[in-house]
Each structure stands twice: as C-alpha cells, then as structure tokens.
Amino acid sequence: MTFQKASTMKDVAKEAGVALGTVSKVINGIPVSEKNKIKVENAIAALHYEVNTYARGLKTQKSNLVALLIPNTHNPFFASFADYIEGALYKRGMKLLLCCADGIPQKEIDYLNMAINNKVDGIIALTYSDVGKYIAPGFPIVVFDRFFENQVIPRVASDNFAGGCLAVEKLLEFGCKHPVYIRFHSVFPGESDKRRDGYLYACNKYGLEPDFLDVVDCDEKLTLMKEFLDRHKNPDGSLRFDGVFAHTDYHGYLFLRLLQQEGFRIPQDVQIIGFDGIYKFGNENEELFVSSICQPLEQLSEKCVEILIAQNTQTVPSLTLLPVEYRYGGTTKESGRPGSGPSQGVKTRSSS
Amino acid sequence: MTFQKASTMKDVAKEAGVALGTVSKVINGIPVSEKNKIKVENAIAALHYEVNTYARGLKTQKSNLVALLIPNTHNPFFASFADYIEGALYKRGMKLLLCCADGIPQKEIDYLNMAINNKVDGIIALTYSDVGKYIAPGFPIVVFDRFFENQVIPRVASDNFAGGCLAVEKLLEFGCKHPVYIRFHSVFPGESDKRRDGYLYACNKYGLEPDFLDVVDCDEKLTLMKEFLDRHKNPDGSLRFDGVFAHTDYHGYLFLRLLQQEGFRIPQDVQIIGFDGIYKFGNENEELFVSSICQPLEQLSEKCVEILIAQNTQTVPSLTLLPVEYRYGGTTKESGRPGSGPSQGVKTRSSS
DNA sequence: ATACATAATTGAAACGTTTCATATTTGGGA
DNA sequence: TCCCAAATATGAAACGTTTCAATTATGTAT
Q: Residue A39 burial by CB count (10 A; 0-12/13-18/19+): exposed, middle or buried?
C-alpha cells in the first residue's frame, strides 16, 4: 500500500522478463500468450504498478474526462443533474470535471477553453451563452436544456411544450377554470421557453383566455407577483384565477407563499403546478415543494452522456426530448388527496 | 477559432525564431529578454497555441486537479460544499474532479485509487470510511467534517461542540425549559458527534436533565420519532419538552412536520433548532427550513482548499474548527419575530 | 579596445506511455 | 527431421512538455 517510487511499465517489463510492448498489451487487454500474461500480471501486482494517465494521454489524446459546465450546484436542479451525470460517467469508467460558471457568459467561455486545454473527451453544457460558437466543429459536446441558433450541436431536454400542456390539463382536471402562467425568464433563450408555448397551446385548445406574468428575471419578483395578484382581485377580494402554472417550482413556491400571506388557501382557493420536480432536501423520498411537472432528470442525464459518447462513432439526433410527468406535491386538489401530505416512508440519501 | 492541428511549442519556437527553451520560459513566466518575449507571444497568438496538459503533467507530475470525494450532490449541504470548493479551486487556477461515492466504503476506496491514478494534486474527502488508511503518507489530503483514528490527516470542521451548546443556549434564551436532542447518526464516527457532546455539556452547565433520541440512521425515523413523542406526552396531551435541538436541519424538519401533524404549534408549543443551515432551493436569499445552527460552509470550503495546498510547503494544523452561528428560520420564538417570515428581497441564484 | 562577469539563450535528454515494423517463436504437414 | 505460415514478441520512435548543462550575447570596468 506504499506508493514509494511509482513503478513504470519498463519496471514491470524487467520484473516479468518480457518486452515493453507485451506489458502494454496486457494492460490494454490485447491478446498475449497465457504464459506471458500471467508473468506480467504478477509483476504488476508485485510492483503495484499503475498506469500513468499523463503518459497515456500524451500518446492517445484521450482522457476519459468529461467537463460538466453548469451555473452552480447550489440550485438543487443543477445539483441533482450533476450527480446523475457523475453516475452515468462513472458507470462508463469516465470522470467528471465540474465547472460552475455562475451563468456568467465570460466565465462560461473561459471554462470552455480550460476544458479543451485539459483535453477533455467531451463537454456537457447547461449554459447561458451559446457555447457552440466557441467550440471547434466536431468537438464532442451536448447541450442540456438550452436552445441556440447553431443547430449543429446535439441538444437534450425535457419535452417542455408537452409539459406546458400537461400543466394546464392537470389544472383543468382538478377543477380549475382559469389557470394563469407565471414566469421569470433569463435573457437568453432556452428550451424551457417551450413551457410557455405549451401553456398557450393548451389555452387555445381548451378555449381558455391566456393570462400570464412573463418578465425577465430580477430581484423584484415578489413585487411583480403582488402587482399581478392585485390586478386579478375582484372587488369582493376573490381572485379571477384559480390555478397557477409556474415556470419553475421555485417560482411556484414564491407565489404559493405570497398567496398564503394574502390569506388564500392552497389548494382550496388556488391550485399551483410548478415545473422541474424539486424535492425538499434533495431527497427523492421527501415531499416536492409544490405539485409539479417533473423532469426525468436521471434519464436526461443518462441521455446526455449517451449522446456525448455516441457522437464519436455515429451521427446523433440534433434534439432529444424526454417526456415529463405530473407529480403531486400538496398544491393541487387531487382526487383522494384532500390536501394531505405524501409518502410516510422516510428514506434518506447519505446525509451530513 | 479553429483547432485544426493543435500547434506545439516546437511550432511556436520555429514561428518566433527562438529556441524551444525560450518558448517554455515565456509560457511559464520565467524572465526572458523583452524582444524575445514579444516574438514568442506573437507566435503563440498567431498559432493559437495551447499548452498540452498531458505533456506538461508527464514532466511535472502536477495536474492542478483536486478530487472532491463526497457522498452525493443531491443533498444540499454536500451540493453547496461542492460549489464552494469548486470556486475556491477556480480562484487558484485549479480544477475539480467530482467523485460521488454514495457513502459506500468500497466505492470511496475505488474513487480514492482512481484519483491517485489520475495524478490529482490532492484530495478533499467527506467520506464514511477512513480514507487515511488507503493513502500514502504525505499525499495531500484534507478530511472535512469527519473524525478518524488516524490523527495524521488534517481535518476541517465546524465547531460542532460549540454548536451543540449554542443550540441549547438559544432555546433557553427563547424561553424553553426542557430542550431535547434528536439524532439519527451514521455508524461511522464523525466530527458531528460533538454536537451531542455540546448538548450534554450545556445541559449539565445549565442544570437541565439531558433527554434525547439518539439512534442509528434508518428508514423508520418517523416511527421512532413518534414513539419518542408519545413517551413525552403528559396525560393531558401536553408535552414534557418545549424545545428540540435536531442533529441536522433535515431531522429537525421531519420532527417539525410530525409535531404539526400531531397538532402542536411551532414555535408556540415547541421550538426547534436544527444544524447545518440549509436554505430552501439552495438559495441563500431564501428561508431556512428551520431555525438552525449554521455551518460557515463557504469559509469551511475555503479552509479545506487552503490547508490542502499549504501542506505541500508547511506543516498544517491537524484540526481546524470554524465557528458556527445561530440563524432564525421560523421555528423559534425570537424577540421581535412573532413567528413571522424572514427577508423579503428575493434574489435568486441562476435558476433553471 | 580588451577582458571578464553576468545574463540570456540553446537544444538534447527525459518523463511513461502506445504503436508498429521487424524479429522470433510455434507447431502442423511433408 | 525440416519448412513454412501464422502467431507472438520485441523495442525504437514518437507524443509535447520541462529542465539543465553548455553556449553565446551583453555590458561594465580597465
């Protein structure tokens, strides 16, 4: 268990009494006579030989390293995404370089260059800037949840449009007559813009009047929500809407609190459906913050890795959409759930 | 912006009309005549030269890579820790290899070896197994929040003992007469065990009878809590405790819900203080889940990186404790806060 | 103008792999 | 026993850096 001097393939070759090339073959699983294979394996064990990643990388120009470029891991959505990506890579013997660019375009570009310098085999990006513009054509990359002009780069995302429809349909199913949509969006376009399209489509389909708050994200979210709320109050104090489709669970949760502060009961007076499927404490056996259109984050992550790797050997679809699903989170009037809490079993992920 | 053929130092030397060694000096910031410096810089720019990490690593045996070995990033505590570590490394021009071992000892050891094989410059570990046993003496490593026999490895943690005391003192300050302690612990020892010691010490100091639920973590947390609760009910249905110090915010939150389900009001009937300082949606401008003894996670992360790097050149303290602080999270009766919510400004981290 | 100390530059060697053209071994058939 | 094709083994070259001993340029004092 000591790593005193770090033995090399040359040492192994000498110890085993074979040539360098033979050792290389054994290490890389290339057929070799049984006799020599055993000699080499014994020598490797005896010397605690470990492949030197740098020497190998220098020759092969492969690293088994993938850079994940995301804004941060404080946000539970990104955090879980990172975890699933890590797992998907680990299964394949690959490693994850974590790059948190805080959503700052310049930092995203810096990281991109750093990753390329470090000879990563590929990049999975959830960025605000159009990273495609800074990547050599053909360099393996997958973009998650974002939409850019450059159609060349493969993208993976949830079916946000279907999610927007589903949110409306669920609200209608649970008895809503007037679902509104609330959104604070980034200045950069993204796949999630389709949630709005889905909402609008569903409104049209079911003969509803679209009604929404859709502004650029800012620090005055509460003020804007309050104004929206006030605009929708009848003279008698009642509301002119009874359902909310929030662009994200977080927005839904903010609105939930505001409504509660104003004395409205959730879900009795107003039902809320968010988007993402964020669990409290990041624990999938916990409650959701709000009823939600849940993104299949684990499958999305798996897909990202799959497509990243596949593009080395084949052409991959330029857009892959995975289906979303509605899940109860306490803010909807589901039949059989009179506002009661969810599961009782409390399994925890490793906790601090 | 094309990376056609990836030029080398030799190309740069030729282009600039200088020797290889001169190019190397310019790249590594070693003094060179102004004239040559300019020639080389121009050539580098002209050829879009980028250092090859593998060639460099092969010579220097340095990678500027640090492995972070944690259970996962779903848990917001670990997720934020990872983010801060990433930031602290980025500031120093270093990169983060993210290793999520799910708290499985064998996986932790596997990752450890992988990291060493990949010639990381150091490891920051938040593990369950005693990784020190699998590391060559002298290999740069910092252990966060864990306590192992092997005193040789530098450890960083919050002052858990002081935190345990502080929790009791705060509960007393807010009017509690009988604070209990709730904990579901790992089978592995850790620095956080000191929270219990702090609780006991404070009980003794203030003449209180210690009273706690302290069992190994399992899936029956709710059942055990319910039993604990029932054991502490008076014949009239009132409780024999009025304050709870929960080992983590999560445990505090579970107990909070249970108490609420049983009809107790928080904080009027029972006050709760957790530990960690977990924000909803990982957003530090959001609410805490419960009032909490907060770990200074950003400073802790910075300290980990600092100590990891320092040990290359100097002896570092074997244990570094950082102070914790109490923060209001809605589950305590603070003067001036009659159960009202916290801040109104809603700044968000980059959100999906 | 010369000598000498100092500063700057040079390029071969080495880091530990993989690759591949060449050499050696193997064993089955005559 | 001998030959030959097929299978296996060999080790030099190359990957792109850094390092360092040797060389050359520079500038100062005489």
A: buried
d(CA B100, CA B119): 18
Tokens representing A212 are: 């929404």
* B252, B272 contact by CB (below 8 A): yes
Residue B14: pLDDT over 60: yes
How far apart (Å, rounded) are the C-alpha atoms in residues A290 and A243? 13
CB contact under 8 A, B351 and A250: yes
Percent of residues, chain A, with pLDDT higher than 90 = 79
What residues contact residue B62 under an 8 Å CB cut-off, 6+ apart?
Answer: B121
Neighbouring C-beta atoms of residue A59, cutoff 10 Å = 10
- How many CA atoms within 13 Å lie on the side-chain side of A248? 19
**SS3 of residue A30 by DSSP:** coil
Amino acid at B7: S
**Cross-strand partners of A167:** none
**Among A218, A279, A211, which residue's Cα sits nearest to residue A244?**
A211
Task: Give pLDDT, residue A149.
Answer: 72
> Taking CB atoms and an 8 Å limit, are A281 and B76 in contact across chains?
yes
Q: Measure Cα distances from A191 to A71, A103, A157, A158, B304 in Å.
A: 16, 16, 7, 8, 38
What is the DSSP secondary structure assignment for residue A74, as one 8-state letter? S
Q: Please say if the pLDDT value at position B271 is more than 60.
A: yes
Q: What is the largest CA-CA distance in chain B?
A: 94
DSSP letters, B14-64, are HHHTS-HHHHHHHHTT----HHHHHHHHHHHHHHT----HHHHHHHH----
DSSP A254: H
Q: Is the pLDDT of residue A57 over 60?
A: yes
The nearest CA of chain A is from the CA of B299 a distance in Å of 15
Q: Retrieve residue A165's tokens.
A: 């429809």
A32 CA, C25 C1': separation in Å? 13
Q: Tokens 């092997």, residue?
A: B150
> Angle at CA B90, nearest 5°, toward A305 and B29?
120
* Residues paired with residue B190 on neighbouring β-strands, in sequence order: B146
Inter-chain touch B86–A99, beta carbons under 8 Å: yes
Q: Are B157 and B145 in contact (CB under 8 A)?
A: yes
Q: Can you give the pLDDT at residue B119?
A: 85
Q: How far apart are CA B74 and CA A218, in angstroms?
A: 26
| pLDDT of A347 higher than 70 | no
pLDDT of residue A147: 81
Backbone angles phi, psi at B58, to 5 degrees: -60, -40
Q: Is the dihedral of CA B289, B295, B298, B301 positive or negative?
A: negative
Q: How is residue B154 annotated by DSSP?
A: -
Q: Is residue A328 within 8 Å of residue A309, measured between CB atoms?
A: no
Reported as a pLDDT band with limits 50, 70 and 90, residue A137 is confident
Residue-averaged pLDDT of chain A: 91
Q: Which residues of A120-136 are buried (b: 16+ CB within 10 A; e: fewer)?
A: bbbbbbbbbbbbbeebe
**Buried b / exposed e across A291-330, counting CB within 10 Å, b at 16+?**
bbbbbbbbbbbbbbbbbbbebeeeebeeebbeebebbbbb
User: Which residue among B98, B139, B253 places its CB closest to the CB of A82?
Assistant: B98
Alpha-carbon gap: B38 to the closest alpha carbon of chain A (Å): 23
CB atoms within 10 A of CB A242: 21
pLDDT of residue A188: 87
A8 Cβ within 7 A of any nucleic strand C atom:
yes
Angle value at C-alpha A56, between A54 and A62, nearest 5 degrees: 95
pLDDT (tens digit per residue) in A253-267: 999 999 999 999 999
